[in-house]
Protein 1
Amino acid sequence: MKVLLITTPPNAVLGVLEMLDNITLHVIDCSNKQDNILDRIFKVVKSISPDMIITYRCPYILPKEIFLQPQFGSYNIHPSLLPKHSGLNPWKSIMSDADQINGVTLHRISQDIDQGEQIAQSSYSIVDMSYECARQMADDIAGIMISDFIKKFSHL
C-alpha cells in the first residue's frame, strides 16, 4: 500500500510509518513556508497515486481534488479531542482549557476543516503539564494511533 504523509518532521507519526513493512511511504515535508506546497502535493499525488494520504502537523488545507484521490481515503491526525479545539493550531486554546483534558483525533479529511468522520480518539490529562510535554504526549499518541490504523490495512 502506498501512503503519502504530509507533515512537518520530525515527529512520532513519521517515525512509526517509516518502520512499517506493509507500506511504501512517500513523505512531503511542509516545513518550508516559502515553497508552493499545494503544487508539489498535486504533482506527487499524480505521479505516485497513493492509496492513502495522511496529514499530521501540516499547516495547509488540502483541496478536495487531492484528498478525494486515494482509494482508501485521506486522514488527518489532529492534536485535540475534536470537535473541541479545531483549526490549524489549537495549542493556545488547549493549554488554557479549564477541563485540563486533551487528546488526539484521527479523522477523515473533508471539505469542512476538522469535521470529517472520526476514526479514533484518545485522551490524556494535561494537569500540571507544560506545553512541550503536552505536545510530546500528543505526538506519541498520534504515532500509536496511526500504527494501529494502518495495521488494519495489512492484508493489502
Protein 2
Amino acid sequence: RFNEPVTNFDASDVVLTDANGTLGTLTANADGKTWTATFTPTANVNDTTNTISVNLTGVTDDAGNAGVGTASSSNYTVDTRSADTTGPTATITLADTALTVGETTTVTIRFNEPVTNFDASDVVLTDANGTLGTLTANADGKTWTATFTPTANVNDTTNTISVNLTGVTDDAGNAGISIASSANYTVDTRPDTTPPVINTATVSDNQLVLTYTEANRLDATHIPPTTAFAVRVDNVLIAVTAVAVNAQDKTVSLTLATAVSRGQAVTVAYNDPTAGDDANAIQDAAGNDAASFPAMQVNNRTPAPQSPAPPDKDIKDDKDTDGDSDGVPSSVEDLTPGIPGPAGAAPIAGDGNGDGVKDSMQAAVSSVSLVRSPTGESKPAGAASTHVTLVADSLDGKPNPGSSARITHLEQKNAPAELPKGMEMPLGLLRFEAAQATGHGSEKFSLYVDP
C-alpha cells in the first residue's frame, strides 16, 4: 500500500532476496495505491527471519517524484518441512559372520527410507577388527554394500560394525539418532604356522605324485621350480619337466622327461630353496614352507605291458573278441568314455578308471554299457545308455600292479519287483563274477558310475 497513487511500479521493484518464496502476478486496485499478489513459500524450509521489500527509487507519484530507499515487511516465518519428523534408522548385516584366514565378506547397510549425506565417515569400525572397501549405493537410495576385510592374526568373537546416524538425513531433512550396529560376528585370522609334511610318493609312467599331510590347503600359485626336485630311476637322474600343485588334494605332481617302466627303482628328493619361507616352494596357503627331504623310495605303480589278445579263431570278424576274458567284448569296453588320470593326464578312450590303460587290455578291469532303466536286463526300447567300470584288487580305483585278480563276467539284471520304501535302482542290478588275486583271502573292488 502506497500513501498516494503511483506510477512505474511493477514486479521488478519487489525484492525477494530474503523472502524464501516466489510472488505471483501483481494486481492494482482502482485507487492506484494498493497492489496484491499471491506469495508461495519455498519447500522444505524452516526460517523465522523472512522479509519482502520494495525498492522505492524506481516508483513515482503523479507529480513525478521518485520514492527514496526501501520499504520492507516485518519478519514472517516459513516452515515448509514435510510432516515426516522422524530421522532414518538402519540395519547392518554381514554375509559371513565367521571370518577366517584369507576370507572377506559383503557388508550390507539398509536404511528404512532414502537418505542423503551418508558416506564412509559415518561408518564406525572401532570394534570391527577389519577395514571396509568402497561403499556402493543401490538405486533405491536405501541400501549400501561394501567388502569387509578382517585384520590379520586376530581372534575375537565380539566384533561389530556401526553407523553413526546423527550425520545422516532423510529427504525431509530429518537426521538420524544415535548409533545402529550389526550383531556380533567372529574373526579368527591367526596364521597357520604348521608346514605341510610329506606323506607318500607314487609314480606311474611319467607322472610322479607327492601327497602331503596338511590341515588346510596347499598353495597352488607359488610353486617350486623343477630344479628343486631330484628324481632317479635305477639310480639315473631323470629331468623333471613340469610341476603342478593341487591345493585341495594336497598333492604335488611332477612330469618326468622319461616314462618309468614297471619294476624300476625310483627315488625322489626335494630341496627347499632357503631356510625361511620362500615365494616359490612347496607351501601351504598360509605360506609355511614344507621341509626339504632326502632321496626317498617311490611306489612304482606303472602297469605291466599288456600282451595283445590272441585272435579269435572261431570268428572271422575279430571285432567282438574278448581280449581280457572278462565276459565283455573289447569293442564294447573300448566305447567307454575315458577319464583323466591321477595327475591330470589326458583321458584315453576306453579307459574307464583313468589308469592310462584301456580296460579291454586288463583282466582286473571291466567296462560295460548299461541301459538306464530298472529293467535293464529286459532292455526296454528307447532307454538311454550309460557305462560303468568295475576294478578288482582295487587301490584308489586302480588295480594293483601285477595283480592276478580277474573279472570273468559282468552283466546288468533287472531290479527286484518290490523294493524297500524310498529305495531306487535306476540301473537295475549289476552281477559280476571274479577270481581273487593269488594269496588273497578277500578282495577290494571299485565301481565307476557316471555322476
Protein 3
Amino acid sequence: MSKPARTSFVCQQCGKESPRWLGRCPDCQGWSTFVETRVSGPKGGRSLLSKSVTPACELSQVTAEETSRLSCHLSEFDRVLGGGLVPGSLVLISGDPGIGKSTLLLQVAASVAGQGGRVVYASGEESMYQTKLRADRLGIKGEGLYLLNETSLEAILEQMGALSPCLGIIDSIQTVYLGELDGGPGTVSQIRGCTLRLMEWAKGSTVPLLIAGHVTKDGAIAGPKVLEHIVDVVSYLEGETFSSYRLLRGIKNRFGSTNEVGVFEMTGKGLAQVENPSEVFLSRRSQRVPGSVVAPVLEGSRPLLVEVQALTTATSFGLPRRTANGIDMNRLQLVVAVLTKVAGLRLGNQDILVNVVGGLRVSEPAVDLAVALAIASSFSDREMDPGLIAVGEIGLSGEIRPVGQLERRLAEASRQGFARCIGPDDSLEWRSLPAGVRVLGARSLRHALQIALPRKPRADAAGEGREARG
C-alpha cells in the first residue's frame, strides 16, 4: 500500500520540507524558495534504489583492480576529469543558458563514438532534427552516436540497456522524470529521484554518464543541493557574454584533483581547445602602458599567465569607488589599504578599477602583488618593464609572503619569454629556479615598488633587489 498523499512546502534549492510556508529557508538561507508540493511515497510502494544487500567485507580483503579510464580525446576536457571518464561515474556539467553545454556534450559524444565506441545521447530539450542541425554545423557525421528524444527516464534507461553503450549523456537532468514520483520535471523530488536512479544504473552497468544541469539566476545549480553530493564530478562551464572563450572548471572530483580548468574558444564549428591559454590571454597586451602587470597564477595544476590591469582616477563624488572584475573585492580593499598605510600612496580620493583580462577569475592571493603594482603604476603614471612579472601574497603589515609551486609558475613565464620576476625574498633560499629566469626578491611592498617603479635608471634599480639566476 502506498502512503497517502499529503501537502508540504518544499524548498526548491535545498529540498527542505516544512509543514507551512516560510519566507526564508533555515537551511540554505534562500528567500521565497518554498513551493507547496503534493508529497507522497513511490507509487505501488516501490523504492527508487535496489533492495539487494551487499555483505560487509574487511578492508584488507578488498582487491583493487586497475580500471582504465575512458578518454574523450579532448585533452582540455580530460584534464578537468583527471585523465578521462571513470567507468560507472556520474559527471554533472552545468552552466548558464547558451554557454555551450549541449555543444560540448555533443562534441564529446562524437569524439568517443569516432574511436569505435557506442554513445547514447538522450535529449529532452531538442528534437532529433534540431540535434542533427547542430551536428551538421559542427561537422559531426554521427557514426556510432545514437540520438534519443525522450524525457521518461525509465524509457531512456531501457534503451541504454538494450544498446549497451560505452557512454551515456542526459541533456538535461531538469527535463527527465520518473513516472513513479509525483511532480513534474524539474521539481525537487524528480531531480533527486532521477539522479539516484541514474547513479544506481551507472554503478551497476559500469557505464559513465554525463549529465547537463541548469543553473539559477544566482549561478547555483538548479535543484536540491543533494544533486551535487550524489554525482561523482561537478564542473561549471563559464564564460563572459562578450568573450568567445569558455572555461570548464572542476568543482568536485572523486577521482582526481579539483579546481582543474579546461580552456575552450567558441567558434563557428563548436568549442575549439586552447592548448596555450597564457599566449591567448596575453596576445593583445599593450606594451609600456601604465597600470598593466602580468601575474603567474595556478588554476588547479595548470600555471597560467594573466594580465592584471588597474586604473586610478580622481573621484567626482565624496566616496571613491572600488571596482574589481576577476578578483575578489575584499582582496582589492586589502591591497588598497596596505598601499595607503604602508606604501604612503594617497588613494583616498581615487576611484580604483581592477580587471583581469580575458574574463578569467583569479581567487588565489598570489595575485596580490600584481594588483598592488598595477594600481601604483596607474597612480604614478609610470609604466613597468613589459618583460617583468610579479607574484606574491601581501600581508597587512606590507610583507611579501611566499606562494606555492613557484617553480612551475616561473617555468611557464620562461616559456612565454619573461626573464624577470618580482617575488617573495625568502623563497629564494630553498627553491630551485628554472633556467633563464631572474628573480628580484622583495622584502616588503615598499621594496617591491622601488624595484618595479624606480625613480632612477632601471639598470641601477635591478641591484636593489636580491637576485637569483637559474
